[in-house]
Amino acid sequence: MINANPPLRSQLNRLAAFGIRPSGIALLAVLALMPVFIKNEFFLRMMISAVMFGGLAMAFDFTGGFINIVNFGFAAFWGFGAYVSGILLVHLGWSPWMTIPAGMILSGILGFGLGLLTIRLGGIFASCMTWFVALAMLSTAGNLVGLTGGYAGMTAPLLFKTVKNWPYYYVILGLVLGIYILFTRIINSKVGMAFRAIGQDIDAASSSGVDPVKYKVLNFTISCAVAGLLGGFYAHFIGVLTPQVMHTSHTVEILAIAYIGGRGSIWGPAICALFMVPAMEMLKDLMEFRLIMYGALMILVMIYYPRGLAGVWETLWEKFNRKTGKEASQKS
Question: Which residues share a beta bridge with 155?
Fold first, then answer.
């Protein structure tokens, strides 16, 4: 008898190489069909923000979860990409489909330069330096009134000439899926092994022939470039840019989502954002307590579930596999 399962298994194995498993396929199908069955524009707009913050949290986790550098200036790179895209469109008349990649490239270049200057410091010193640079970028965006509009804001033309949100939803869903696949491929490569080695024990990694500065700067550059890419999308989704987009409070939100989702998991922060962003939107009457709520959740996770939601899921999955394996052996 010819078994028809091998072709299916081979296809699943190929998808697994990109970090996509059956549960992920099911979730992706649900997300892809959401605009078909849900016509509420407010809900779709909220989901666009959730998916975008999921992508930002993955990029933050790519650095914080693998090389142990917490980028407290992360939101500034997101905002920098947004401003680059908006300025190139408003002042030079470029197409947004060109300005968004330009924001990604220039954010990556800025991240590379900052990485060369700060990554050598290591630990909390590098984190503080990224924060100081972010504050300087925020102040600069507020003072360059002729270029950015200052604190009054700059109008960035929208990506689509429609009041419907579903085109933005599918664009950001495709972008974040591509980002997830990129990160998964990198982490599962030799470069990813170097990242993990540096994050676990930098001295041991150095003695094994890994150049910490080289791989830290590479990781930091990729993370900042992705932040700039999502910033470019944000500029032409929200339509108005102010220096507030670079504020540290946004970094704290992204950090909280990344750590609650599961540090060093990549997919955990993305899933966490799908729940946390809508939940916080539902509690918008308590927005002045938002950062306190994020902090309380982080403390609970760090005490009881250090591996975050991703760790909880992996533990439950292992228990399920052990249980089903025992039942199968008893039947046989």
Answer: 240
Amino acid residing at 20: I
CA distances from 214 to 195, 279, 307 (A): 10, 39, 28
Closest to 77 in 3D by CA, of 234, 246, 218: 246
- What whole-number distance in Å separates Cα of residue 225 and Cα of residue 31? 25
- pLDDT value at residue 2: 45
Dump pLDDT digits (tens) for 76-117: 999 999 999 999 999 998 999 999 999 999 999 999 999 888
Q: How many CA atoms lie within 13 A of 332 on its CB side?
A: 6
- Other C-beta atoms closer than 10 Å to the C-beta of 6 total 9
In percent, the amount of the chain with pLDDT more than 90 equals: 51
Q: Is the dihedral of CA 214, 220, 226, 228 positive or negative?
A: negative
Contact 60, 124 (CB under 8 A): no
Instruction: Report all structural domains of the chain as residue ranges with CATH numbers, in order of start.
Output: 38-331 (1.10.3470)
In DSSP terms, 154 is beta-bridged to 241
155-173 pLDDT tens trace: 999 999 888 999 999 999 9
Q: At residue 265, what are phi and psi to the nearest 5 degrees?
A: -110, -20
Q: Whole-structure pTM over 0.90, yes or no?
A: no
- As beta bridge partners, residue 241 has 154
State which amino acid sits at residue 16: A
Instruction: Specify whether the CB–CB gap between 247 and 138 falls below 8 A.
Output: yes
What does the DSSP assignment read for 108-120?
HHHHHHHHHHHTT
Sign of the Cα pseudo-torsion (86, 90, 96, 100, in order): negative
Name the strand (E) or helix (H) holding 241: strand 240-241
- Can you say whether the dihedral through the CA atoms of 311, 314, 316, 318 is positive or negative? negative
